[in-house]
Amino acid sequence: MAKDKSGFVIAAAFIGPGTITTASLAGANFGFHLVWALLFSIFATIVLQDMAARLGIATGKGLSAGMKDMIPQPVLRGLCIALIVSAIGVGNAAYESGNLTGAAIGLDAFLAIGTGSWAAILGLLAAVLLWTGKHQWIESVLVALVFIMASVFFITLLVASPDWSAMASQLFQPVLNIDAITTVLALIGTTIVPYNLFLHASLVARSTAGQSKAEAVHACRKQSAKAISMGGLITLVVVATAMTAFYQQAATLDAGNIGEQLQPVLGDWAQGFFALGLFSAGLTSAITAPLAAAYAVCGALSLSDNMQGRAFRLVWGLVIACGVIVAGLGLKPLSAILFAQAANGLLLPIIAIFLLVVMNRSQELGQFKNTRLSNAAGILVVSVVVGLGMYKLASLVS
C-alpha cells in the first residue's frame, strides 16, 4: 500500500505566491511582531486538518458529502451547496491565475519568453499531471516542490545572517492594532485555507481505503503535524528574510521589488533563488487549487469524485483554463480574488463549526469522534478567527 503523503500536499497547497507576498510584507513592515499570528495559524491548521482527515478516514467520504448529510433541511442544504461552489469552485478559479502568474514570473527570470507563455505551459503541465488520475504521482511531485521551496528559503536565510536577538525580542512583543490587523488576517487567511479541508478529507478517504482506520489516523495525524509545521517554518523563514532586508530600512517593500529583498545578501544569485522559490510555490498551488475545487464541487453536487471521471476532470479543467486565460491576458483579477477572499472568509468559521458538530455527532465516526481536548482546541480556533474578523469590521466602521 502506497504511503499517504496528504499532509505534505496540504503544506504545498497553502504555501503559494500569496503566502510569500504576505509573509514578506509582514516581515518588512512589522518585523517579528506578528509572528504570533503565524504560530496561531499553524496550530489552527493542524487542529482543523486533523478533524477533516479523521472524518475522511472514518467515513470514507469527502467534506462536501459530509456537510450535505448533516443538513436535512432542503433550503439550508441548497445554501450550503451554493456557498461551497462559489467559495471553492469560483474562488479557486480566481486564485489559479495568481498561482500560475507567480510560477510563470519565477520561470521567466530564467528564460524570458513572457509570463503569459509560461502560464500556458504550466497550466498544461498541471492538467497533464491531474489527467493521469494518479494521486500518488501528484503527491510525489508536490512533496518534491515543498522540499525545493524549503531548501531555497532556508539557504537564503542562512546567507542573510539576520539579527537573531532582535527577532527573539520582537517575538515576545506581539502587536495587534488597527495598522496590523489587515496583515494579521492575511497571515491567518493564507495559512488556514478552507479548500484544504475539502482536499485533505477526500485525499485520505481514498489513499487509506482498506487500511486499519486506527493506524491510518495515527499515521496521518503524525505526518500532517510534521508537514504543516514545515510549511509554517518556510513561511517564518520568508518573514525573517524580509525583516532582515527591509524592516526599519530606507527601502520599502512592494510588489515591484519583492525579489530584491535577497539582493544585499545573495548578490547576483538573488534573482535566481527567489525565482526558484516563487516557481515552486506557484506550481504547488496551481496543482492543488483545481484538485481541491474538483473534490469540493463534485461532492457538493453529488457527482463522482473519481479522479478519472468526466465531471471531476471538467471542474479542474475549467479552473485551470480560467487561470491560464486571465494570466495570459495579463489581467489582474482583483474583484474576483476579493470575492473569493470574502467567500472563503465566510466559509472558514462555518466549516470549522460544522467540523466541531459532525465530529461529535456523527455515528459513523465511532472511536474517532472528537475528544474534549479536540473540542477545546476547535472552539479556541473558531473564537479567535471570528473575534479577529469582528475587530477588523469594527475598525472599518469606527
Automatic annotation (TrEMBL):
* Keyword Oxidoreductase attached: no
Bilayer topology term: Multi-pass membrane protein
- Keywords linked to the UniProt accession: Membrane, Symport, Transmembrane, Transmembrane helix, Transport
Q: Where are the transmembrane segments?
A: 7-28, 34-53, 74-95, 107-129, 141-160, 180-206, 227-247, 273-302, 314-331, 337-359, 371-391
What Pfam family is a match for this entry? Nramp
Q: Give the range the annotation lists for the signal sequence.
A: none
User: Mainly localized where?
Assistant: membrane
| UniProt-listed InterPro entries | NRAMP_fam
**Where is the protein found, in the record's own terms?**
Membrane
Keyword Transmembrane on this protein?
yes
Taxonomy, superkingdom? Bacteria
Protein name (database record): Nramp family divalent metal transporter
List the source organism. Alteromonas salexigens
Q: What is the lineage of its organism?
A: Bacteria, Pseudomonadati, Pseudomonadota, Gammaproteobacteria, Alteromonadales
